[in-house]
Design brief:
Elements: E1 3-9, H1 15-25, E2 38-46, E3 49-57, E4 62-69, H2 72-89, H3 91-95, H4 97-102, E5 110-113, E6 126-129, E7 133-134, H5 136-146, E8 150-155, E9 161-166, E10 172-176
Parallel strand pairs: 1-2, 7-8
Antiparallel strand pairs: 2-3, 3-4, 5-6, 8-9, 9-10
Helix pairs in contact: 1-2
Length: 178
């Protein structure tokens, strides 16, 4: 059974909203074997848009999705559908035997330091990543699960830092360092 950490940013999370989020995300329980999964849900407002961001860290990967809509309930529906599609799309990769035996922890533990910026600064967010060695296929899986357009990882064969990115044609590109 999934547990929930639901919080609002410039938005009051009412009991109705909280229970709607929980009922929608409960659909994902069937995909998890672990009982102590924690879903972190952030609800926020930007202009007329309602934004929901869901992050579900597990011991093997991190699922993350964000959706925006004028109607908060529609955004909740969209983010749940998107998370379920991510799981189904990557199901075979997630269930591969070599992931279960070889790589016990694929998730990156990172801290986000959001500092106030003045007008001259261009860096608005910093992340510190613990780089665990992985191969290209794992990097693709992690990038897809996070919903990002690029992914930085340490190659398990060369120990170099590589950047994997999604090309406009839908394929992947890889920048390898020396």
């Amino acid at each position: 059974m999934m547990k929930y950490n639901i919080r609002g940013d410039k938005l009051e999370v009412t009991d109705a909203i909280g229970s709607y989020v929980e009922s929608k995300l409960d659909r994902l329980n069937k995909y998890f074997k672990e009982d102590d999964i924690l879903a972190n849900v952030l609800l926020r407002v930007r202009g007329n848009s309602q934004i929901i961001e869901v992050t579900i860290p597990t011991d093997k990967f991190i699922l993350r999705s964000e959706e925006e809509d004028k109607d908060l309930y529609a955004a909740i529906d969209l983010v749940t559908d998107k998370l379920e599609r991510q799981i189904r799309k990557n199901k075979t990769r997630l269930n591969k035997q070599n992931y279960d035996n070889k790589f016990k922890a694929l998730n990156f533990d990172y801290e986000v330091n959001e500092e106030e910026t003045n007008e001259d600064e261009v860096i608005v967010k910093r992340k510190k990543l613990e780089m665990k060695p992985m191969d290209e296929e794992e990097a693709i899986l992690e990038m897809n699960l996070l919903g990002h357009e690029f992914f930085v990882y340490k190659d398990m064969h060369t120990n170099n830092i590589n950047v994997l990115y999604r090309r406009k044609d839908g394929n992947y590109g890889l920048i390898e360092t020396k």
